[in-house]
Amino acid sequence: MKTHLISGGCGFVGRNMVNRLYQNTTDRILFVDNLSVGKHPSEWLDIPLKDTIKGMEIYGDDKRLMFLKEDFRATLSNFITNPNYLDDHYGIKVDKFADVFHFAAIVGGRAMIDGDPIQVALDLSIDAEFFYWISRHKPDRVLYPSSSAAYPISLQTKSNTIQLKESDIDFDSMGQPDMTYGWTKLTGEFLAKITAEHYGVKITCIRPFSGYGEDQDYSYPTPAIARRAVFKEAPFEVWGSGHQGRDFVHIDDVLDCIEVAMDHIHDGSAINIGQGVLTSFRDLIQIFCEFAGYDPEIKPLLDKPVGVHSRYCDMTWVKEHLGWEPKISIKEGMKRVYDAVMEREKKLGNL
To answer: What is the pTM of this model?
Structure first.
């Protein structure tokens, strides 16, 4: 039986990947998360807990889901020190992982990126240990999620709003990425290319733009804005002027693109994942308020951190080389989020 590994498996993207792999394969899945940001599986995994082995939680009658609550760096240290660690410690034999998805990272919203940049820089240590282990273990395939924050901020200003192409990141001639988070992801991409080239590991890098979905918590801007529309906030507050824009892409599209990319890209090259559409936060507010049936005044909060003015991608390379395009429109995706938030608040007794 194949065994896949997902770091950060209880975060937004990680838990969606756990569910997808469990539903679409008959493989085992080991997922690791310290729950500093992620949610415990009991909150999102609709599968019963069947066993616990020395702290590892085993889910499902087929026992294909294995969860470790720990810092992924501790997991990596154990794997590096003892390649047979899972068998020796838990009695779970894994000669080699099939697919490894590395979602573990220290990242928050804009307040974290701008407010505590050195904490975010710890991602450098996570990724360095990760690729060191990858170079030794050599799993079948690896996914490294970079970020749209890796792109030069000089291409994302009010006076220079362009669709970002994969070729806009050139390791021979680089611009400055977005804060320490952007630097860590850019460094991760470089490590991915080096590991693929020098150690013969199949690695795919992605640069997802502003991912969203129904099960995001309110620390993310999309569900937070939806919730305020559900309660008909007026005036409707927005960080900054609200004219800053992002490329919003639904999590289902992100996972679909990952599947295609991992089948075709093995040299550590990075691709964009987005709609290729720039949507301002004012536009987003108007979409949610349209669902809620009201038209409030929008109140700018100019003292709040806002990041770059515009960030959206060019999907031409992905469309031409991978034959992939996103399927879920902004309106359809945001309606799903709005309905999910409405249902969540009803269950909480707030509506």
So the answer is: 0.93
